[in-house]
């Protein structure tokens, strides 16, 4: 008989914590994306090949792909397809975010195999590792969105402590030079860098990145695409 979510949390407290922090990372991204305006979609992002519209489409697709993997359907390419943004991209993103959180919550334990074809065409990954992959993506992509919009991004210290070893475990090899790679070759962090800065530099982001039209400070007076 399969365990319910309460039984699974009791049996695997570290896994329950991972899923809680993952949900926090994803919902942090939702909070930021709800600030997106129509004029923002063409802005350049720290992902050098992508405007904000491209980044938002990628983030939405990844939620669907990882959600499918949690349900045992990760090998089906359609779940990973990046589609053009529709009339309500913020609503689409929010729904996709809640979808992946719910899919992860239904996973029985940390060893459940996930098929992640973007990582390997042949092997599977244990659920705890796969959720860690997704968590680090959304810590970094939340920073990408915040920096693109000129907004503050202040994830919890607990989330950052959990994310740092995941960031450091991402291979820093030639795969980061491939077109469409989410991460670039690692940079050297300042000696006094905080945890978020260490995460960013480990994954090839400069903590000092600003868009060409941005001045210092946090943007104000925004009219979001949705409330």
Question: What's a quick, concise take on this entry?
Answer:
This protein has 227 residues and is mainly α. The chain has 7 helices and 2 strands, in the order H-H-H-H-E-E-H-H-H. 48% of the residues lie in helices and 3% in strands.
Please tell me about this protein's structure.
By secondary structure, this protein is mostly helical. It contains seven helices and two strands, in the order ααααββααα. A two-stranded antiparallel ribbon has the order 1-2. It is globular, with a radius of gyration of 17 Å. About 4% of the residues have low confidence.
What are the key terms here?
227 residues; 7 helices; mainly alpha; two-stranded antiparallel ribbon
Q: Which percent range describes the beta-strand content?
A: under 5%
User: Compute the gyration radius: what is it?
Assistant: 17 Å
Spatial separation of the terminal alpha carbons: 42 Å
Report the structural category: mainly alpha
Could you describe the largest sheet, including whether it forms a barrel? 2 strands, antiparallel
- Overall outline: globular
**What is the averaged pLDDT score?**
88
- The tally of helices reads 7
Poorly predicted regions: 216-223
Helix content: 40-55%
Task: Record the SSE blueprint.
Elements: H1 5-11, H2 13-33, H3 52-70, H4 89-105, E1 113-115, E2 124-126, H5 127-149, H6 157-169, H7 195-202
Antiparallel strand pairs: 1-2
Helix pairs in contact: 1-2, 2-4, 2-5, 3-4, 3-5, 5-6, 6-7
